[in-house]
Design brief:
Elements lengths: L1 H6 L33 H24 L8 E2 L2 E2 L3 H34 L3 H10 L3 H6 L6 H10 L2 H9 L1 E7 L9 E4 L9 E3 L8 E2 L1 H13 L2 E3 L34 E2 L4 E22 L5 H4 L4 E15 L4 E13 L9 E22 L12 E4 L15 E2 L2 E2 L10 E5 L10 E3 L1 H12 L1 E7 L6 E6 L2 H5 L1 E2 L11 E2 L10 H19 L5 E4 L1 E6 L1 E7 L1 H18 L17 H7 L15 H8 L5 E5 L6 E5 L16
Antiparallel strand pairs: 1-2, 3-24, 4-8, 4-22, 5-6, 5-17, 7-13, 9-12, 9-23, 10-11, 10-18, 11-12, 12-13, 12-16, 14-15, 18-19, 20-21, 25-26
Helix pairs in contact: 2-3, 2-13, 3-6, 3-7, 3-13, 6-13, 7-13, 8-12
Length: 641
């Protein structure tokens, strides 16, 4: 079929030979110039939209500056993050600039054609609008179309600059004082909960499984109840998310949730009532080895320097309860004259009574604290410093200076409780298990003994407490063995021993609630909160660079609009509009007289055309023509380039 088209000429009436004298739709040529008649509304709207986009970018950065990321939104409705909004603004800017430069291309090209130009110049100007390579390889022919195209393509930098204009940073939140915190915790020690007495002994020999879980976690994590530990106390977590000592029949203190502390969103402090032991102590002092030459006695008597011991009083009538007696003795001594070793022996006797104790609790929410230096969990406020980065805390925060943030009250007595137990073989006990824990952790002693003229004095210690607290004066020759003292102001009963016991009993109260023993939901008092949060940061320098890029694009496009008032009709760079202006026969129609491409398409848009070979007398041509006149190009001697 294609070969027949080439070999024979088909008689087709040329389009330009057709008459349309009776076509009432044909319009005469219209050429109406003027500033207002030919004002490029699309281009102007695009320019103003670009300016509006720049203003929107500034508004986004201004509104998001120093705003917490989880507070970003309108009336508690989350909004896209600033970088997403800036990406949208950048996309809109690129679209409107493309619309503006497209109209500028058409105006500049048709003005050049109106003033008269060569086909080469017109082709080169058209190619500038579609190819950056054409601009770079034809710098000698650089014109307003090339300028507009180049400046528009450089707006790719806007996206990078706008993204650099917004970022995030971490800082402590300053609006969390008086936060609403609730706790579910036991306020009394359960009966028979901590120890087991075997045989005829009236003291506990082993921990119960429940208390063993408490002590194991305490030895592993110290004063912090770590969320990540296998027996952690849940806070804002469901039991299915953690492993616990007894996953069966766990209480649900807050409805469907099994949280034991609620309301914290960061690092929180507050006072909570829980089960504990209250220390009632009395001190007594007496001279120790005063004016006595120990070495002269030449005896093997041991002189105690330090001792801690604990025992159960199964019924203390004055307390109407089983209690624990703690005895702590320590010597402060110096080297005297003539071989003497004068000093003072202080004996501290304390009765540990069951009580409801007000603890200063510290809570750290794992989901919200992002400080790498922070620990996550629950503990007493005495350990709060372990869970917060002091360097990052502002010097002042809501009128409180930084040291005041850590001046939390010590434990306070809410009221005494009664827990009467009877010793017996193979029985469980609560006070006996606590006594076992105290003796295991803190029973200790230190003493000196004369061992003879050749060896002199010998110092003996046992347990961990004595070496931890009892120290020699390093400025004095240690051979005297007389210069022993506790650090100034250190009180064993109110430092490590009491603090550690408070932590153990606080853990016990939480585990007792978790195990289903009587507990209450209570509102914490004196609450405070500091949250190490993520905030949005705005850098207007990068925004300035992006806005400058937008303005340069507008300035680069503006020259292409020059002389728009000289054009008497709407113009585009559409191929059929240009072909019509070049008098292509296939587009011949009286509507061409108007010059408007819309009029042209309305009248000739249904004509079928095809690109291919049209046979001629001299040589076939590759043109766009009626389908009946063309054949598909084929590779061959005559078709080879």
């Amino acid at each position: 079929m294609d070969a027949e088209k080439i070999q024979s000429r088909v008689a087709v009436q040329p389009v330009h030979d057709q008459t349309y004298a009776d076509d009432d739709s044909v319009q005469n040529a219209r050429w109406i110039t003027g500033v207002f008649r030919r004002l490029p509304w699309i281009g102007l709207a695009a320019i103003f939209a670009t300016i509006g986009a720049a203003a929107s970018a500034f508004a986004i950065l201004r509104c998001s500056k120093d705003v917490r990321t989880d507070h970003w939104g309108v009336k508690n409705v989350p909004a896209p993050s600033p970088n997403v909004l800036l990406s949208i603004v950048n996309s809109i800017t690129n679209l409107v600039l493309l619309a503006a430069v497209g109209q500028g291309y058409a105006i500049a090209w048709w003005r050049r054609a109106l003033e008269g130009s060569t086909v080469t110049e017109l082709h080169r100007s058209w190619s500038f609008s579609s190819s950056t390579l054409s601009i770079l390889t034809s710098l000698k022919s650089f014109n307003t179309i090339a300028l507009a195209a180049l400046m528009t393509k450089l707006t790719i930098l806007d996206g990078v600059l706008l993204q650099k204009a917004t970022s995030t940073y971490l800082a402590y939140d300053t609006d969390g004082w008086g936060v609403d915190l609730k706790a579910y915790i036991a306020t009394e020690l359960p009966h028979n909960y901590t120890g087991i007495m075997y045989g005829a002994n009236d003291t506990a020999s082993l921990y119960t499984p429940e208390f063993l879980s408490v002590m194991t976690a305490y030895r592993a994590n110290g004063g912090l109840i770590d969320f990540n530990a296998g027996n952690a106390i849940p806070i804002n977590f469901n039991h299915s998310d953690q492993q616990y000592y007894d996953p069966v029949n766990l209480p649900q203190p807050f409805g469907v949730s099994s949280d034991y502390f609620q309301g914290c969103s960061g690092s929180c402090w507050g006072n909570v009532n829980a089960a504990g032991l209250w220390w009632d102590c009395a001190n007594a002092t007496e001279p120790w080895a005063a004016n006595v030459s120990l070495s002269a006695s030449n005896s093997s008597q041991a002189y105690p320097l330090f001792s801690t011991s604990f025992s159960v009083n199964w019924y203390d009538q004055s307390a109407n309860s089983t209690t624990i007696k703690a005895r702590i003795a320590y010597v402060n001594s110096v080297e005297g004259e003539n071989g003497t070793c004068p000093g003072v022996l202080t004996t501290q006797t304390c009765v540990l009574r069951p009580a409801v104790v007000t603890y200063g609790a510290w809570i750290s929410d794992e989901n919200n604290v992002t400080d790498a230096d922070s620990s996550k969990g629950i503990g007493l406020s005495s350990n709060a410093k372990a869970g917060i980065n002091l360097k990052a805390v502002p010097t002042t925060l809501h009128g409180l200076t930084r040291p005041d943030l850590y001046s939390f009250p010590a434990t306070q007595l809410a009221n005494y409780a009664s827990l009467v137990e009877t010793p017996g073989p193979n029985r469980r006990t609560t006070m006996g298990g606590i006594e076992l824990a105290l003796n295991t952790l803190f029973a200790s002693s230190a003493s000196i003994e004369w061992t003879g003229p050749s060896t002199g004095w010998s110092l003996t210690t046992s347990g961990s407490t004595a070496p931890f607290y009892f120290s020699a004066d390093s400025s004095v020759d240690v051979s005297s063995l007389c210069n022993y003292t506790l650090p100034l102001g250190v009180d064993p009963a109110t430092t490590t021993i009491k603090t550690s016991l408070d932590e153990i009993l606080f853990r016990t109260s939480l585990h007792a609630a978790m195990d289903g023993h009587p507990a209450t939901v209570q509102q914490l008092t004196g609450t405070n909160q500091m949250a190490y949060r993520q905030y949005y940061k705005s850098d207007y320098r990068w925004l300035g660079g992006a806005v400058a890029s937008m303005l340069l694009a507008i300035l680069g496009i503006a020259p292409s609009y020059y002389g728009f008032w000289q054009l008497g009709r709407r113009v585009t760079l559409g191929p059929f509009e240009i072909a019509s202006a070049l008098q292509a026969p296939i587009l011949e129609h009286p509507a061409v007289a108007s010059g408007q491409v819309d009029d042209l398409i309305e009248h000739v848009g249904d004509r079928r055309v095809q690109y291919g070979l049209v046979p001629e007398v001299e040589q076939p041509k590759l043109v766009m023509a009626e389908p009946d006149r063309v054949a598909r190009p084929a590779y061959g001697p005559r078709g080879r380039r």
